[in-house]
Amino acid sequence: MDEKITSRENAKIKYACRLSSGAAFRRSEGRFLAEGRKLCPELARGAQLETLFYTESAMAKCPELADLPGEHYLVEDHVADKLADVGTHQGVFGVFRTPVHGLDEVKTGGRYLALERVQDPGNVGTLLRSAAAFGFDGVILSDGCASVYAPKTLRASMGAAVRIPVIEAGAMPDAIARLREKGITCLAAALYKSQPLSAAQASYPGGVCVVIGSEGQGLTDATIAACTSTVRIPMTDRVESLNAGIAGSILLWHFREESL
Amino acid sequence: MDEKITSRENAKIKYACRLSSGAAFRRSEGRFLAEGRKLCPELARGAQLETLFYTESAMAKCPELADLPGEHYLVEDHVADKLADVGTHQGVFGVFRTPVHGLDEVKTGGRYLALERVQDPGNVGTLLRSAAAFGFDGVILSDGCASVYAPKTLRASMGAAVRIPVIEAGAMPDAIARLREKGITCLAAALYKSQPLSAAQASYPGGVCVVIGSEGQGLTDATIAACTSTVRIPMTDRVESLNAGIAGSILLWHFREESL
C-alpha cells in the first residue's frame, strides 16, 4: 500500500507545485510536473518518472498506473486540486527528469524545427507534436519561447516533448550559424521577399531547418539575415495570416521524412 | 452624437446577449454578435452590420469605427462587460446579419471542406480560416459542429466566417451524396484502410471535397461509406494523432487552388 498524503503543505506537494508554476525553478532543478491519466504514462516512455501522485478514484479507473516506475503516493482530492494548474484534472500527476539536449547533437542531413520567441504554449506544443509526427530530428528554442515543460505546453504536445529532442539555445542567430556550419539549409518563414513553399525543394541533402517566429512580430531581422533563404505559405487575399501552429505544421509537412 | 446606453437591461443589449449565447436563437433571428476592434470591421466587409456598440475608450483608440455602417450606440463600460462572453474585451461589438448559403450553390469543379461533428470552436474557426486562405469555395457543416457564429469560433476564424460561404447541411451522408451527383470527388479523412496523402492527386477535374470528422471519434461509418475514397496524413509512430485543426489544414493545403 502506497503512503497517503493528506496535507496540502506536504513538502513533496509544495515542491511539485513550484515545478508546475516556475520555468526558472524547473530549469534549475532539471525536473517538471505533468498531469493526466494518459499524458503521464506517455511521458514515462521518454523521460524518467521520479514521483507519481494519484487520487483513489484515478487509480480505480486506471489500475495500470501502478505499473509505472518511481515512488508512488496516494493523495487526497483537495491535495490533487492544489497540484492542478487548472480547475479540472484527472487526478494523476508525475514529477519527471527533464531530458537535456544540446546543439552539439545536431547532425548534418537531419531535419530541425527552430522557434524564435513563439510565446503561445498551445502553438509550441502543437509544433512539437507535428515535428515528431513528420520525422524531425529535433526542435531548437530561442529565449522568450513558451516553456516546453509548462502544464499547458505539455498538454498541447501530447507527450511529444519527450519523443523528440528539445534544445534550448538562447539567441537564435547564433544557433542558426552553428547549424549552417554543419551544412544545414536554414529556411526562415517570412511573408515578404520570400519564395512560395510550393516552389521550394522538398529535401536538402545537407539537412534542413525550418525557422518560425513569434505570433505577432514574426522572426527578428537578425535571424532572417542568418538564415540561408526565406519561404512563405502562399495564400489568397481573403485572409491576412494563418495561425502560427498551422503555418508551421504545413512547413513541417512539406519537409517531412521521405518515407512518409 | 450617438445615443448612449447606460443600462444593462436595455432591450438592444439583452437581444445582443441572447445572440451571443444561443445558437438556436442566432439561427431563428438570422443574426449574430461579434466582438473585437479588428474583427468587427473585418466582418463588416462580408456581412451586413446592423448595430454597432462601442465604449468611449474604444472609439478614442479607433476613430475609424465611426465610418462603419448601421446604427451606432455608445455604451458604458459595465454594459460592454455584459455584452462580452469572456472577461477581457476591446469594447467594440456588432450585430450582423448571418449570410445564408445552401447546397444548391455547390458547383462542379469547386473545392469544398466538409466538417462532421467537429465540436471544438477553435478547430472549426481555424479550419474556416485555412479554407479561405487556400482558395476553397465553401465549407459544409453537419449537425453537431460547433456554431460558426459563436464568439469563440468567430475569434478563431478571424473573420473568415464571412469570406467563404458556410453551408449548414444537417446529416453529412446526404450532403456527400449531393456533392457526388455533381461529379465532386469526396475524400474522407480516416486513419485506417486509407491512401496516404503523399500519394493522392493534388486536383480533380470534377472538384474535390475534404471531409473531416470529430476530434475524438473521427467520421461516422455512414459518411465514410458515402465518400469516394479515404485519405490519411502519414505519420511516424512517435505520435498517436495530430490536432484536428492541423490535420485538416494540411489536407486543405494539399488540395489548394492551383495558382497558389
From TrEMBL, chains A, B:
InterPro entries: Alpha/beta_knot_MTases, MRM3-like_sub_bind, Ribosomal_eL30-like_sf, rRNA_Methyltransferase, SpoU_MeTrfase, SpoU_subst-bd, tRNA_m1G_MTases_N. One of its GO terms (biological process) is methylation. SUPFAM superfamilies: alpha/beta knot, L30e-like. Keywords: Methyltransferase, Transferase. Residues 33-102 form the RNA 2-O ribose methyltransferase substrate binding domain. Pfam families: MRM3-like_sub_bind (PF22435), SpoU_methylase (PF00588). The keyword NADP does not apply. One of its GO terms (molecular function) is methyltransferase activity. Belongs to the class IV-like SAM-binding methyltransferase superfamily. RNA methyltransferase TrmH family. This is RNA methyltransferase. It comes from Faecalibacterium wellingii.
